[in-house]
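Researcher: We're teaching a course module on how sequence relates to structure. For the next exercise, students receive a sequence and then see the predicted structure as tokens, so they can try to spot secondary structure elements on their own. Here is the exercise chain.
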Amino acid sequence: MKIDGLSDSFNYAIEGFVHTLRTQRNMKIHFIIAFLVLLASLFLDISRIELIMIFFSITLVIAMELINTAVEVIIDMITVEYRFRAKIAKNISAAAVFMASINALIVAYLIFIDDIRVFSLDIIGKIRQDPTHLIFINIGLLIIIIIALKAVKGRGSPLEGGMPSGHSALAFSITTLTIFLTKNMFIAIMVILLAFLVAQSRLQSKTHNMLEVIAGALFGVLFALIIIYFI
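Model: And here is the predicted structure for the students to work with:
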């Protein structure tokens, strides 16, 4: 009977963890980050003490998320309408998860900062040796930011309309990078003309207004300059 009871306890605990992982978005995020951190630890020189700190931080965050989920379920069961104290209880349980996450970030920073610094320097060195990397990384990051801005604004689609003009941003960003990498006056004039033609086409097709096109062009130039500055 004792063995069966112990087995049931383990099963209930696993069911609770699986339910939280299946239904809670934050738990999925914690789980993915924990997996990536442990995977990275396989390829880095991690001491036994550092590994203990990593496992403790991961366990603490997951445990706090489980408690937070349990508190939310209990409050939802006993509270039908909005109550200030119920809100406070949920906020406090969420704050416990937040504090555990901050602790995990600090631990990760202290353990991985040296490896991240070396890795970053290697990546930057490779990018400097091959300008193609710089252009494609710039384009990829710029597309992600433009789509995010349009999603926040809620106007237009990822490819058409909205603030700012993504086509103008990409055209002027690539123009800026091309001028920086080639340092050729003829090429600079040609790519600038092409960028203005792209902007003009967005206006003529009435996909964007003047403000959206100008904002996209300025954003593209500024983003390229930031990439160049840090690289």
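Model: If you want an answer key for the exercise: Helices lie at 2-23, 25-42, 48-78, 84-129, 131-153, 166-182, 185-204, 210-230. DSSP finds eight helices and no strands in the chain.
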